[in-house]
Specification:
The protein is an alpha+beta fold. The protein has a single domain, classed as Ribosomal protein S6/Translation elongation factor EF1B (Alpha-Beta Plaits, 2-Layer Sandwich). The protein has two helices and four strands; from the N terminus they run βαββαβ. Strands 2-3-1-4 form a four-stranded antiparallel beta sheet, covered by helices on one side. The longest helix is centred in the first third of the chain and has 14 residues. The mean pLDDT is 92.
C-alpha cells in the first residue's frame, strides 16, 4: 500500500563558515536528506545571503537562505528535522504545508 504524499515548502538557513563546501554542495546534501525521508524535490530556489533581524551570534550576522518545495509522506517533516539537527551546515530549518 502506497502512502499519500503531501506538498511542503521548506526554508533553510545555511552555515558555511569555515567550510570548504560551496553553497551548491550543501544544497545537494539537503536534497539528499529530503530523498532519504522518501521525499521528492520539485523546486529549489537560492534566495541568497541575508542579514538576520536578530543576531544570536555576533560572529554570524547573516546566512544563505534557500527554499525547497517537495512532496513527502506525513511523517517526513519530523524525520527531516531530526536528520538536519545533526548536520552543522544547516543553521535553521522551517518546513510548512504548501
Amino acid at each position: 500500500m502506497s502512502q499519500t504524499k503531501r506538498n511542503y515548502k521548506a526554508s533553510f538557513i545555511l552555515d558555511n563558515r569555515g567550510k570548504e563546501d560551496s553553497v551548491e554542495t550543501i544544497i545537494e546534501g539537503v536534497k539528499k536528506e529530503i530523498t532519504a525521508v522518501q521525499g521528492e524535490v520539485t523546486a529549489v530556489e537560492n534566495v541568497g545571503r541575508r542579514d538576520f533581524a536578530r543576531k544570536t551570534d555576533d560572529k554570524f550576522p547573516s546566512g544563505v537562505y534557500i527554499q525547497v518545495n517537495f512532496s513527502a509522506p506525513a511523517g517526513a517533516p519530523a524525520q527531516l528535522h531530526e536528520r538536519l539537527r545533526l548536520n552543522n551546515s544547516v543553521y535553521r530549518a522551517l518546513v510548512e504545508n504548501a
